[in-house]
Amino acid sequence: MAKKTEKISINTLEKLMPASGVITVELHEGVNLLVKRNISLEDMLLFVDEVVDICFTADGEYMPEVLDFGIRRNLAVKYANCSLPENVGKQYDLLYGTWVVGAILEHIDSAQYSEICKAIDKRITHQLNTHYSVEQLQLAEISDKLNELTASTSEMFTGVDIASVLETLGTLRGMDEEKVVRALAKSINAEHEK
């Protein structure tokens, strides 16, 4: 007879979680950094979205040089009690000029952080592939339209004696554009009537 497996209750699982998922790190005398060991699902999704968004311009160009900055900014805001200024240059200086991000990385759940980084990489790869596919589709449409134009243009000049048209154009030097167009149309019509 098979042994019955007991399920672990939600209450039991909740007891396994640390009482407080927040760690206090003293950065400097009187300056404490509060670091969350884990962030919520909602914050994790926002973290990934914000990093991916900052890596692409409005026209879809990928800027890998801002990837690390985006990650650092979200580490400071999502995992810790850091407030950052609106000015991006100042944010950059604070995130790279202090040891705040290093202190955060020492105390967060490395498994969750690793999964966030993997998700960012996958989203960037997906977005790059999607952008590349759209560009290929647009190029194919342009190629089709050029082929259609070539076909319709060649049909339009079927039976036209190009030498005769060029000869007519040569005799039109010094005439105004309107007269040249009329003469050209007359020449083409004459060729079609033959």
Describe this structure in words.
With 194 residues, this protein is mainly alpha-helical. The termini are far apart. Strands 1-2 form a two-stranded antiparallel ribbon. It is elongated, with a radius of gyration of 34 Å. 64% of the residues lie in helices and 7% in strands. The protein contains 8 helices and 2 strands, in the order αββααααααα. The mean pLDDT is 83. The chain folds into 2 domains: 125 residues, no CATH class; 39 residues. α3 packs across α4 and α3 packs across α5.
Summarize this, please?
The chain has 194 residues and is mainly alpha-helical.
Brief descriptors of the model:
single chain; 194 residues; mainly alpha; 2 domains; two-stranded antiparallel sheet; 8 helices; 2 strands; 64% helix
